[in-house]
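Page 47, continued from p. 46.
Same chain as before, 249 aa.
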Amino acid sequence: MSSKNSSPTRGGGPRSGGGGETSGSPTGLGPRHHPSDGPPPPAGEERALDFAKGGGLIPAVVQDADTLQVLTLAYMDAAALQETLESGEATFFSRSRGGRWRKGETSGNRLKVVSVTPDCDGDALVVAVRPMGPACHLGTTSCFGKETAPGVGRIAALERTIAERAAAAPETSWTARLLAEGPKRAAQKVGEEGVETALAGAAGPDEELASEAADLIYHLLVLLRTRHMSFQPVLDVLARRAEAAKGSG
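Result:
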């Protein structure tokens, strides 16, 4: 698709609910990162946003920053995008209401923005968020089906559960007890579960192997948590190895 009538101008436009492009609004955008999330990623190439192509609106695919699950599809005008970048909370233009709409203002299920990234043509956005509750008005995690964190996203969802359990009383939660006992105890459990997984892999049925592998992954995530780590550094190592393998091939 070609990008017509786009403008590379940037700045702090007024917060309005209008559907058109506002003078001085953020029509030029590289990947954006909100300061509350820590150091930003490397800046990408600045791209002009084409609000005119969609009649003043750009579709925004909202994605969970951790599980990568697509949560919803919404629309932004220039003012909604500006407010999103300034507030760190996803704000949209509601076509049914005909004006501004910040997700969670009524329900409390706000979407904390991690980054905003345009597509190659500048006429669509991916908004990576950390949801404070269900993204769908029907009470489901996503507007696209009832499943929560499908596929490998389940690991990030489990990490969130482990983090939540850290606040529980150790006498009522096995996860809280492991976290309280620290890395050595968690590492011991990883070793035990690793042996059980190996034995199941060598001689057990598939169902047993899957169950033991699940226990191993759970205890590994707990161990990482006791070291103030997430699973992301593990994925980063795998990514670097994959890139190195391409170079050596």
